[in-house]
Design brief:
The complex is a heterodimer of chains A (191) and B (511).
Chain A (H helix, E strand, L loop, with lengths): L13 H21 L3 H16 L8 H22 L7 H4 L4 H36 L14 H31 L12
Chain B lengths: L2 H19 L3 H17 L1 H16 L6 H14 L2 H12 L6 H14 L8 H15 L4 H13 L8 H10 L3 H29 L9 H13 L4 H26 L5 E4 L2 E4 L3 H13 L3 H23 L5 H18 L5 H34 L2 H11 L4 H15 L5 H17 L7 H19 L7 H9 L5 H24 L2 H10 L1
Antiparallel strand pairs in B: 1-2
Classes of the chains: A mainly alpha (191), B mainly alpha (511).
Amino acid sequence: MATDTRARKRMPPRGYLAVIRTIDKFTVVTSYAFVIAIVPLVFANVVEVFARYVLRAPTVWALDVTTMSYATLFMLGATLALLKGAHVRTDMLWERFSDRKKGMIDSLALLLFFLPTMVVLFVISWDDFLYSISIDERSSSGAWTPILWPLRGVIPLTAFMLFLQGISELMKSLWAWRTGEFLTVHEKIEV
Amino acid sequence: MGVNEALGFFMLLSMIGVIFIGFPISFTLLFLALVFGGVGLGWEQTFNLAYVQIWGTMKDEIFPAVPLFIFMGFMTEQAGLMERLFGALRSLLAGVRGSLYMAVILTATIFAMATGIVGAAVTVLGIMAAPMMLKAGYDARLSAGAIAAGGTLGILVPPSIMLVVMGPVMGVPVNLLYSASFGPGFLLASCYIGYTLLRSFIDPKLGPAMTMEERKTAYDQMTTERVRVPVVVLGLVCMLAMAYLVADAALSRLGVPSLTVAVGPLAVSSSALVPAAATTYPFFRSSYFRAIVLGIAPLSALIAFTLGTIIGGLATPTEAASCGAFGATLLALVYGRLSFKAVLNASMGTMVTVAMVLFLAVASTVFGSVFTKLGSANVITETLLAIPVGDWWKLALIMAIFFILGWPFEWPVIILVFLPIVMPVIEKLQLGLNRMDLLLWVGTVIAVNMQTAYLSPPVAMSAYYLRNVVPQWSLGTIYKGMADYMVIQVFVLIILLLFPMIALWLPQVIR
């Protein structure tokens, strides 16, 4: 997203850059879709409080809607956080590394840790997702009992999205390892 | 120690080694947990364990409050309420020496009660207050420290998301943890204020009072601002409502018989209308009326409502947080600052921040459960319990370890990864308190400890943010300023360790 295109920089081949840009774009666009989950998250409980204290008739769906929108928001938001470089790192040594060294560490970690973990996560959650569909699993947290497979599906979807974004990050850090220059600027956020 | 326990320690050591190099912590934890768990416990069991833990975090009933409080903070910031608050406090305090320090710290404290993160507080205060402090000839070191330290209160004072995350880890209700953190939070804020005022009184050059000219400009600025009708109405309603509730509480304590009106679960006596109106009336003629009605009342009402319902046990943190987020959005609307872009920015910011914190929560619960299953956690507990010192010193030792861990690590790592490891030890401490009081007290001590970590120089992000918005201050000056306030932090930390009642009086009053 924040791809820096200053002229003096060495730029990777067009195809290489196109893959990175496509993946990043995909992540940003899907994130715009997922962020809508915040609307039901806010309103479910406002309506619940209103219904309970003013109308004296609590809703049956508020808890399930809250769980679903909250889980969607933070699990699928992890992909955008990866793109923005927001996942927390230990800065003590990191800040002092050269860009080339940062690229090397990230490349190795993404390749050896990150991508395999996401594959495993996808495999172990995919079965449960299919099983949930096959038995028509229902939520048991209230009287509403909505279908549960969309929520089960969030886990493999997260793993898939993170894997995809991981490939883009790997390509960026490989480039930084080779040339010592980062293609994107990551902003650190503070909590 | 069997093979599995040794494997667990090897996992812990490799975790510390790998995350020190700098790869994102949540993914490292997941990977290590899967690999070491697979080797020690069998792959099938580890994968099931991981899935169950992830699913459990997704179904958590308290964590939904985290994104909501973050969103509430972002919306309050978008509404420009911090600027108004600061402007109001600045003109109210104008005559005092070191008034800007006080205004900065008070603004930060009040704003901290509307947001759950440190986030933008330091940046906004830096942009807003630093130019004024520079112009008024305030001491750079003291000013930088005041802004940085004030900004960190957001993570300590309710609705801190750190306490929401800590509650389930320690097994205490979040509303009690919230009420326990008020004492230390206010103690810290008053220590900051006391320190800056003392310095300014001893040496007026450090923080001169506002000159008459400046006061006049500030006053003119405030009284000539065109304000739209809804803003005034909102301010008045909020102020009247607050005065009304206070008057009602006072009347009911005096035992005045009265007609009661039930507003939701609150029974409010209508006879409180008279004293409420009487207390607010003098302000109508005062020149500070605008400052209070427009700058302070709406935000205070939002805070009082959100935190009041949680602490009073009327609403769950999630419900109160939703209403708070909704209320903050309404405030932004009334102040004319609500746009699609503002909401989108706040939502995207919320999503990224919450994903960072809670994905780490997911990863560390997986890591923690594998660590416990391997049996290594027990070994640590038994070793720590066998140390031949008194229980108070054990607690002090744990706090010292956390203090040191706070330099390289940020709070999500310490609360989610390291705290569960020492939790069994904390629960077994015998300090003459019942279990709940003990946990609440230790929880707030840890919270203050983690807040201190924000001011510890090598990786203190606040310093970089401040440096970015106030180029006139060098990083060295900012660090020196932060170090001064760190001394205050350590002082308060020790006071809190010696006097548990600072944290426990409010929870005990409520129960």
